[in-house]
Amino acid sequence: MLKIKNLHASVADKSILRGINLEIKPGEVHAIMGPNGSGKSTLASVIAGKEDYEVTDGEIFFEGEDINEFAPEERAHKGVFLSFQYPVEIPGVSVTNFMKTAINETRKAKGLEDMPAKDMLKLIREKAELLEIDRKFLSRSLNEGFSGGEKKRNEIFQMAMLEPKLAILDETDSGLDIDALRIVANGVNKLKNKDNAVLLITHYQRLLDYIVPDYVHVLYKGKIVKSGTKELAHELEAKGYDWIKEEVNI
Amino acid sequence: MNKYTEDDLREELKTKEYEYGFYTDIESDTFPNGLNEDIVKAISIKKEEPQWMTDWRLEAFRTWKEMTEPDWANVNYKKPDFQGISYYSAPNKKPKYNSLDEVDPELLETFKKLGISLDEQKKLSGVAMDVVVDSVSVATTFKKTLGEKGIIFMSISEAIKEHPELVRKYIGTVVPQKDNFYAALNSAVFSDGSFCYIPKGVRCPMELSTYFRINQAGTGQFERTLVIADEGSYVSYLEGCTAPSRDENQLHAAVVELIALNDAEIKYSTVQNWYPGNAEGKGGVYNFVTKRGLCETNAKISWTQVETGSAVTWKYPSCILKGDNSVGEFYSIAVTNNFQQADTGTKMIHLGKNTKSTIISKGISAGKSQNSYRGLVKISPNADNARNFSQCDSLLMGNECGAHTFPYIEAKNKTARIEHEATTSKIGEDQIFYCNQRGINTEKAIALIVNGFSKDVLNKLPMEFAVEAQKLLEISLEGSVG
Amino acid sequence: MDLKEKLISSFWAFENHQDEDSYLHKIRTEAIKSFEDKGFPSKKEEAWKYTSLNSILKNDYSVFPKQENAIEYNDVKKYFIHDIDTYKIVFIDGKYSSHLSQTTHDGMDICLMSSALTKPKYRILIENYFNKIAQNDSLTSLNTAFSSEGAYIHIPKNKMVAKPIQIIHLSTGNESAIMLQPRNLIVVDENSHLQIIERHQSLTDNPVLTNSVTEIFVNKRAIVDYYKIQNDNTNASLIDNSYINQKQGSICSVHTFAFGGKLTRNNLNFYQQGERINSTLKGITIIGDKQHVDHNTLVHHTEPNCESHQDYKGVYGENSTGVFNGQILVDKKAQKTNAFQSNKNILISDKATINTKPQLEIFADDVKCSHGCTIGQLDESALFYLRSRGIPEKEAKALLMYAFSNNVLNSVQIPEIKNRINKIIANKLGVDIGFDL
After folding, report:
1. Could you give phi then psi for residue B121, rounded to 5 degrees?
2. Helix extents (H) in B50-180
3. Among B2, B433, B448, beta carbon nearest to A93
4. What DSSP string runs through B17-30?
5. DSSP secondary structure string, B339-402?
6. Is the CB of B405 less than 8 angstroms away from the CB of C365?
7. Which of B186, B245, B254 has its CA nearest to residue B217?
C-alpha cells in the first residue's frame, strides 16, 4: 500500500529525513518509535504532503502511484489520513460542518454526488457512538477550547468518518489519560480490517499495549536504524534509547 | 504541486466582475446638476410636500452650506463635487404604481437580475418589500396585510402626505438636520425612502424589507428611512442595496432613524452591496450614511450589517440608550477587496441605568483595501450599572491591505463594566493544511475559515437574509470563497 | 502676555546670546518657529481629545530660573532610591547641582547636556543623535528651542553599566511658578546594558510645569530599562515626551508609575528600526483628587520579527481622570510582528472618568496583534472574602487594588524600585500594610 524508498527531506535547508525505506501492506500495523527530534513527525507530515518540507531525494508510492507531486487534499482523497499531534483550531466552524465539507469534497473528487443529509447524520451518529462522543460536542467549533483528550478523540472520530486506507497516528497517545487512551485505541481497533493499514508514531510503548503492531521501527537521526516485532518496543521501554544510539554510533 | 496560494487568490479576486453591475435603460426624469435653494424647493414641490417639510429642508440646506466636509484617517478618496450631482432622478414612465402589473417591465427585469422577484415575494409569506430605485419608491408589497394590524409601511413621500403628524413628530429627532455634513445634505435633498410605524403592542408578523438601487448615471441617492416602534411592539427590518457598475463615483448619503419606545424592539439588518469599483479602483459608490436609533425604557435596538460593497464606506449605526434597562447591539461584517475603503463601527451612548450594549465586529481585508473599525462606547455619569462588551476581529488576506481598530471608550460612572477585545490575524497555513489533509482544497478551506470567522454575525441575520449574505461574502472574495 | 508669547519673546532674548551660525542655533530657531505656528495643543487635536492644558497654562511661569538654589541631600534623600549605589544627575530648578550628583567620564559619559552641547569633543555625537528622533509637535519643538540642560549619557559598546543612573529634577519653589524644560539624550551602543530611574519632584506647592524631552538610542543588541516615578505635588504638572529608537536585537522597557502631580501627560514613542526588537511599555496609575494622567503611547513596527508588549493598569478615585491612548502601527514590511496591548482600569469614585482609546493600525498580514481593554470595579466577592477573614474594608480594598496592578511590577529588575513603588502605593491608598505579596 505504502512504499517509501530512500526518502530524504528537509525543512528550511535543514536535512531531517536521511534515507527512509519503509513498506506497509494492507492489514498491517506499523509503529515508528524514536527519541525526540529523530524525525518521526516530519515523516508523518511528508507522507501527508505538508509543503513546508522539501523532498530532496527518494520516492513515496501509495497504492503503486508516486504521490510526491500530489497536493495534500489529493492524498487525502486517495485515502491517506493523518491524525495530527497538535490538531488545529478553526473558530466558528463546527465539527459537523467540517466533516460534512470534508466528506463531500472527497466524494466530489471521486465523481460522486454529495452525501444525502440523512445518511450523513446517520453516519455521524454511528461514528460518534464508537468514539463515545457526546452530540453536543459535534456542534462546537473545531478543536476550539477542546481538552487534549477531546482533540485526539475528535481526530479518530474524523478518521472513522473518512475511512482512510492508511491512517497515520502522530503521537495520538500524548496528552491522553488512561480512559481516553482506551477509547481511542478501541476506536482504532474496531476500524482496523484486512484492507487498511495503520502507521503509529509514538515516543512511548504505552499505546502499543492497546494497538498491537505487527512491526516496530526505530527512527534515529532521520533513518530507520532498527526494525523488529512488538518485542522491540518492550525492549525500548525497558532499556530506553541509549543502547540504540550507541549501537548506531559504533 | 498544484498549490493554491494567496497570490492565486489575489489574481482571482482581481478578475472578478461585479455581479450586479448592469444598468437598466428606463426613461427617467432627472433634475439638472447642482444644488441651491431652488433645487431644494423644486424637490419638495415635485413631491407635493406640505410647507413645513419644505421649510425643514431649507433649514437643513442652510446649515449644510455652512459646514465643511469631514476628513478621516485611513480613508482617501476624491471628494465628490456636490454641484456636479443631480439631486433628483426618478423613473418617469409611470410615477405611481397601483399594482405590480403596471411596473415597467424593464424594471421588473432589473429585479429579476437582482434575484428579487416581486411576484414571488408576493407569494412568499415572510417578507414585505419596498423598492427604491434611484430616488423614488416604486413598489411596496403587502401593504394591505400589514394595514390590518395597523402597521404603516410605505415610502416616506407617501407618509409625509398620509401620516404627516407621525413624520413631523419624529423626523430629525434622532439624527438632527445639523448632525453632520452628510446628514444635513440628506435632510435638504432626500427624495424618498421608507417609513414604518408599528402600533403599540403589535408584533410585526413578517420581515419588512427595502431594496435600494442607484440606476441613473450622475445621480446621488439620498434616501431617508424612519422606523418607529411604538410601546411594546416588535419589528425586524431588512435593507439591501445595489448599483450598476460605472466609472465615476456615485454618492449615497442616507439617513436612517430608529425610534424604539418603551418595551419595543427593532432589529435592523443591512446587506450593503453597492458597486465597489473595479479592480483598478475606478468607480464605485461613496456610501456616507448616518444611522442612529433611540431606545426608551426597556427598549432594544439591534443593528446587523454585512458590508461588502461601496468604494468608500463611512457608517456608524449607533444606539442612544436613553431609557433605563435599554439594550443596544451591533453586529457587523465588513469585507473590503481591491481598492475599497471602509471606516465603520458603532456608537453606544449609555444614558439610562442598567443599559447594556454588545459590539461584535468582523473585518476581512483583501487586495489593496483598507478596513477600519471605529467605535465609541460612552458611559455617562447617570448610567449606573452600564455594561458593554466589544469584540473586534480582523482577518487579513494578502500583504497589501490594512486592518485598523480605533475604539474610543469613555466612562464616567464607577459602576460601569466595559470589556473590549480586538485581534488581528491572517488565515493560518496550519489551518489550511489541516483542511487539505481532510480532503478540502485550499479555496474551499478559505471559504470555510472565513465563514467560521464571520459566524457570530451571520447567525444574527434573519433567515431570509442569511443566505443572501453568505452568497455576498462568497462573491466578494470570489475565487477563494465558494 | 500669555505663556506662548512670553516663551517666544524669552527665546529671542536668550538666543541672542548664542552664536548665530552654530548648528544648534539653526535647530533651535526652526523649533521655535514650529512652536509659534502650532501653539499649545488643544482638545481639537485628536491626540489631545481627552486632555486640556488650559488650566495649567494660566500661571505666570518664570521661564529661566533667576538664581541657583542649594539643597541639603538629607532634605531630599527620600526622593532618591538611596538604598543602592547609583550614578546621579540632579537638577535644582533646572540647574545642575554638582554636590548632589555623581557623574562619570570613566569609559563612558554620564554627565550634562550643557557640556555635551557646548564642548567640541561631543560634537560628532550631538550631530548624529541630538534632535534626530524627537518629533516636531508643538511641545517637543518648544523644548528643543529651549534645550540647554538635562542628562547626557553615552555608553560605548560592550559595557554593562554596573550601577543604575538616577536623573532627578527638584524644584525649590523659590519662584512663585516655574517652567522647566529638561532635555535628555541617551545613547547606548551595541551590546551594552543600562538602567535609568527618573523622577521629577517639587518641594513646595508652588506651581511647576515641566515639559521634558528625552531621546534614547538603543543600538544593536543593547538593553535599556527605564523607570519613571511620577509622584509629584498636586500643583506640579508634567509633560514627558520620550522618543526611543531601537536597533536590531535590542530590548527596551519603560515602566511609568504615575501617582502624583496635577496633570501628567506621558508621550512615549517607540520606533523600531531593525529585526528581532523587543519593546515593553508598562504602567501603573493610581490617582485621586482632581488629578489627570494621560498615557499616550506609540509603537511603530517597521521591520519583521519584532515584538511589543504594553500593559497599563489604572485605578481612578475622587474627581480624577485617566486617559490611555495607545497606538500600535505595523508597517507592510513588518511581517511576523507580535504586538500586544492591554489596558485595564478600575473606577472607584462616582466622579472619576476614564477615557481609553487603544488603536491598532496594521498594514502587514502575517502578524499577531491584539489589544484588550476593560473598565470595571473591585471584585465584590473577593472584597467580602477578605473582610470575612478580618481585614478591614479600607485595607481589603487597598489589597485588591494592589493585586490588580502588581503584575506590572513583575518585570521591574531592581528590587529597591519595587519596594519603593509598594510604599508609594500603600501611602497613596492610605493604608499601612506592606505589599510584599
Report:
1. -60, -35
2. 51-66, 105-114, 118-123, 143-148, 156-162, 164-170
3. B448
4. PPTT-------EEE
5. T-EEEE--EEEE-STT-EEEEEEEEEE-TT-EEEEEEEEEE-TT-TT-EEEEEEEEEE-STT-E
6. no
7. B245
Domains contained in chain C, number: 2
Please name which of C204, C94, C225, C198 lies closest in space to residue C149, comparing C-alpha atoms. C94
* Partner-chain contact B414 C332, CB within 8 Å: no
Structural domain that includes position C96: 3-273
- As separate numbers, helices (DSSP H) first and strands (DSSP E) second, chain A gives 8, 12
Query: Considering the domain boundaries, does residue B328 fall inside one?
Result: no
Query: Residue B128 is placed in which grid cell?
Result: 414585505
Last residue of a domain, one of C273, C306, C325: C273
**Structural domain tally of chain B?**
1
The contacts of residue B439 (CB under 8 Å, 6+ apart) are A73, A76, A77, A102, A103, A105, A106, A109, A162
Question: What angle is formed at CA C36 by the lines to CA C30 and CA C40, rounded to 5 degrees?
Answer: 120
Residue with cell 481526530: A155
B52, part of any domain: yes
Phi, psi of B9 (to 5 degrees): -60, -45
Closest by Cα among C289, C415, C401 to C351: C289
Sign of CA dihedral B455, B457, B460, B461: negative
The partner residue sitting opposite A91, judged by closest CB among B3, B441, B453, is B453
- Does C148 lie in the same domain as C32? yes
> Of B397, B412, B420, which has the smallest distance from its Cβ to C372's Cβ?
B420
pTM of the full predicted structure?
Answer: 0.80
Q: Take residue B116 and report the three cell numbers written for it.
A: 428579487
Nearest CA in chain B to C326: B406
Residue type, C382: A
Cβ-Cβ contacts under 8 Å, A158 against chain B: 438
- Decide the pairing of beta strands A2-11 and A53-62: antiparallel
- Grid coordinates representing C166 are 538616577
C-alpha span between C404 and C432 (Å, rounded): 18
Same domain as C211, residue C68 = yes
Would C242 be classed as within a structural domain? yes
Question: Is B413 at the interface with chain C, CB within 8 A?
Answer: yes
ipTM over 0.90: no
Domain residue limits at B137: 29-315
Per-residue pLDDT in tens (0 to 9) along chain C, 437 residues: 688 888 888 888 877 666 666 788 889 889 999 999 999 999 888 889 899 999 899 888 888 877 777 888 888 888 999 889 999 999 999 889 888 899 998 889 999 998 888 888 898 999 899 999 999 899 999 999 998 899 999 999 999 998 999 999 999 888 889 999 999 999 999 999 999 999 999 999 999 999 999 999 999 999 999 999 999 998 999 999 999 999 999 999 999 999 989 999 999 999 999 999 999 999 999 999 999 999 999 999 999 999 999 999 999 999 999 999 999 999 989 999 999 999 999 998 889 999 999 888 998 888 888 888 999 988 888 888 878 787 888 888 888 888 888 888 888 989 889 888 888 888 888 777 665 54
CB contact under 8 Å between B438 and A162, yes or no, is: yes
Among C273, C290, C321, the domain-final residue is: C273
Nearest 5°: the CA angle B420, B424, B428 is 135
Whole-angstrom distance, CA of residue A45 vs CA of residue B37: 72
User: Measured between alpha carbons, how far is B91 from C58 in angstroms, rounded to an integer?
Assistant: 63
Cβ-Cβ contacts under 8 Å, B407 against chain C: 357-359, 373
Q: Which residues make Cβ contacts (< 8 Å) with residue A140, sequence separation at least 6?
A: A94, A95, A146
Residue B455 lies in a domain: no
Q: Using CA atoms, how far apart are residues C89 and C109, in angstroms rounded to an integer? A: 12
Query: What are the two backbone dihedrals, phi and then psi, of residue A97, each rounded to the nearest 5 degrees?
Result: -60, -40
Domain membership flag for residue B256:
yes
Domains in chain A, CATH or no CATH each: 2-247 (3.40.50.300)
Decide if C298 is inside a domain: no
